[in-house]
Write a structure and sequence with these properties.
0% of the residues lie in helices and 60% in strands. It contains no helices and nine strands.
């Protein structure tokens, strides 16, 4: 299981436990799964796709950047770029 925090300068967009996360890297979309090698990557404008361990609670995270996909355990987060860092199954995404 991965723990992620998606942050912008204004707020915490999402925090939680996930099964996987796909990110828009500068060289293309890449996916991170539990026990992935540590990584730091620049991100371009695009969509972060998250597969959650539990159902998404829209009352807990009310950002207009988050959209649901019809599957209650998957969300998408729109970003304008940023940086992602992963160490020890903890990912921090600093997004614009």
């Amino acid at each position: 299981m991965l723990n992620i925090d998606v942050l912008t300068p204004e707020s915490n967009i999402f925090s939680g436990s996930v099964l996987s996360i796909s990110l828009p890297g500068l060289d293309g979309v890449f996916q991170v799964l539990p026990n992935h090698t540590p990584i730091i990557s620049a991100l371009k404008q695009g969509t972060i796709r998250v597969e959650l361990t539990n159902e998404f609670d829209p009352e807990q995270f009310k950002s207009k950047l988050i959209s649901t996909t019809g599957d209650s355990k998957k969300i998408e987060i729109s970003i304008n770029g940023g940086v992602a860092e992963l160490t020890n199954n903890k990912m921090i995404v600093l997004a614009e």
